[in-house]
């Protein structure tokens, strides 16, 4: 990819781009579980645990009122080998039962706090710290965060949007991105939900427990589901997600403010580990009409 064309054709008009087979083989080799474990030499890494694989998602809290809450993951630390063994157990349950119960703890390495550099720096001999050279040149500065992701098909990232330019490389398995442009975001409005965090119970299950933090604006599962439906039956929700499979070796560029919901799977049903890395460059901080119009559209929806 030529940096100037990338800026002109995709970054400036905020248009997503999928580049097939753009991640070099050595990145993919480094992302194989035995290779990751050998590089880390038993070091512990941060793992997020969420009931039913729903981290940072709106879920129903148990109890008579069954209210919806925004549940953040339970955070723990373990070696990559332990993580992989737990993930394999979940994947097996998922396969046997054709799904996963909402109180089953599902591990996902997804802590987007620059964890590629912090917990996985040993992988950086093969994977470049600051992303593909065309992206680095196009944005003209180092990325704000570099993230490492490892999970299985039980984990789903619920629909949300970020203010980052996202360059996302899948290195093992497949990620399915459901995308909606910022111009359609007002069809799936955000509403405030009480903040909660998944907690481990003594019987090994996982439940969301309310925190004292302020409410979180997030998309309601029903609205997300409607936006996933394939045909527009003329109901109120007009915006429909476009679906893109990003396979091992592919790189997706996702502009700021595009809504995305993400599912994943490993290379085969018996080998369900999906691995990816991404780099985030902050979007424009200047006051621009695009965000003003988007805020106005969302505001109109509330009237
Ligand atoms: O890979 C995922 O599960 C989510 C990725 C994502 O939401 C992001 O990169 O902003």
From TrEMBL:
Record-annotated membrane-spanning stretches: none
SUPFAM superfamilies xrefs: Clavaminate synthase-like
Alphabetical list of SMART domains matching this protein: JmjC (SM00558)
A family per Pfam: Cupin_8
Gene3D superfamilies: Jelly Rolls
Any coiled-coil regions, as ranges: none
Residue stretches making up the JmjC domain: 116-296
InterPro entries cross-referenced by the UniProt entry: Cupin_8, JmjC_dom, RmlC-like_jellyroll
Domain of life of the organism encoding this protein: Eukaryota
PANTHER family (alphabetical): BIFUNCTIONAL PEPTIDASE AND (3S)-LYSYL HYDROXYLASE JMJD7, HYPOXIA-INDUCIBLE FACTOR 1 ALPHA INHIBITOR-RELATED
Family named by the database record: Belongs to the JARID1 histone demethylase family.
Protein name stated in the entry: JmjC domain-containing protein
